[in-house]
Amino acid sequence: MTGARFLPVSWPMAEKFWWEVSMEWQSSSGGPSAVKTASFQDAVRMLNTLQTNASYLEQVKRERGDPQTQLEAMEVYLARSGLQVEDLDQLNIIHVTGTKGKGSTCAFTEHILRNYGLKTGFFSSPHLVQVRERIRINGQPISPELFTKHFWRLYHQLEKTKDGSCVSMPAYFRFLTLMAFHVFLQEKVDLAVVEVGIGGAYDCTNIIRKPVVCGVSSLGIDHTSLLGDTVEKIAWQKGGIF
C-alpha cells in the first residue's frame, strides 16, 4: 500500500505556507537552490497538504477505464519537473510489483546488488517512521538535508510551471515518485530498485519505459475495487509493468 498519515491542512493554509516559505527563500538565499530557512519539518508539513492517497485512489478507480489517463498525467508532471521519460532510462531500473512480498523482494534485491559494489537507489512505500525512508541511497534513507533540498526544488519547479489547464501539484505518492527519480539522477546511482505503489498498469511508477528487469512477487486477492476480483484480473494489472 501507499498509505501515509496526513495533517488536516486546508488548501488555503497550504498556499499561505508556500508563500511564507518562498519569501524566506528570496530573502535568505536568492532562490530555492540553497534552502537555508525551510526545514525538513517544513517540507514534511507541505508534503502532507497534497492530495491524500485515499482520494487519489478514488480518482484512479474513476479513471481506470483508460490507463493512459494516469500515465499521461504523470508524464506531464515529470516534464514540468524538468525531466523526460527518456531521462529515466539512465537509472537502470528494476521495477517490482506483487500482492505480497514486493517490498521484501525489493529490499533483498537492493541489498545483494549493493554488496556487489554498486551504488543503489531504492524507492518503496509505505514508510515506518519518517517519510525519507521511502527514498534510499546505498540502503540508507536520504538525510533530512537532502530530502529538504530536493523537496523544495521540485515543489518550486512545479509551482513555477503550473497553468490553468492542469492541477499544480501531484498527489502525495506521485510527488514522492517524482522526487525519487530526481534524487537518483542527481546522486548518480548505478541502478534503482522501484517498488510499485498499487497494481502496475495504472501505477504512476509505470512511466518507466525501459526497466532492465521487471519482477512480480506472489499474487493474491487485494484492492479488488481497483484491480479486479479474481487472481486473473489482478495478474493482468500487475503484468502491466512489463
From TrEMBL:
GO CC, any one term: cytosol
The entry's keywords: ATP-binding, Ligase, Nucleotide-binding
Parts forming coiled coils: none
A single MF term (Gene Ontology): ATP binding
InterPro entries in alphabetical order: Folylpolyglutamate_synth, Folylpolyglutamate_synth_CS, Mur-like_cat_sf
Annotated family: Belongs to the folylpolyglutamate synthase family.
Protein name in the entry: Folylpolyglutamate synthase
Organism in which the protein naturally occurs: Ictidomys tridecemlineatus (Thirteen-lined ground squirrel)
Lineage: Eukaryota, Metazoa, Chordata, Craniata, Vertebrata
